[in-house]
Inverse folding.
């Protein structure tokens, strides 16, 4: 059984195994399992992906869709809950494409995480290992994602990077 602290931050590349690792942290907690989904479904491919992920998680998960404002859901969680936010990258993308104030959104998210009474595991993509993007929107996203990841890592009790399905603890300790 893996025990994680109140706030765990799991990051890695796309399809690195980070979500599966994060799900295992929630399952191992023995607490009520809450999945806070940040993606938005705009096409059949994404709808199929969401259904596949729901099936893979299996029964016993409460799924809440919150593509923008995570605060109300986090505030309403019971202390005996464990919440997986999957993922910060989609959440940031939603705000970026909606042309929201990213600094304000990030500040609100961090405050909500600090006040949340439940255990939280938040997943994010590491985007800093690639080349400099060729267009302004992509560069803006990469910079914003980097700042968000730095802020989440600073807040977290435990930070784990997952590569090829293998977790590497960067901060804190897995019990």
């Amino acid at each position: 059984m893996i025990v994680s602290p109140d706030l765990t931050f799991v990051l890695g590349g796309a399809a690195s195994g980070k979500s599966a690792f994060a799900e295992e942290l929630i399952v191992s907690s023995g607490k009520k399992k809450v999945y806070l989904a940040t993606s938005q479904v705009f096409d059949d491919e994404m709808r199929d992906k969401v259904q596949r992920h729901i099936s893979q998680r299996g029964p016993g998960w409460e799924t809440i869709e919150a593509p923008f404002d995570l605060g109300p859901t986090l505030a309403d969680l019971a202390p005996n809950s464990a919440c997986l936010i999957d993922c910060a990258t989609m959440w940031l993308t939603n705000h970026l494409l909606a042309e929201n104030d990213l600094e304000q959104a990030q500040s609100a998210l961090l405050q909500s995480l600090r006040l949340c009474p439940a255990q939280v595991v938040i997943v994010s993509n590491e985007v800093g290992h690639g080349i400099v993007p060729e267009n302004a929107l992509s560069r803006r996203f990469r910079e914003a994602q980097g700042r968000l990841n730095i802020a989440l890592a600073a807040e977290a009790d435990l930070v784990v990077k997952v590569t090829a399905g293998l977790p590497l603890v960067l901060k804190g300790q897995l019990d």
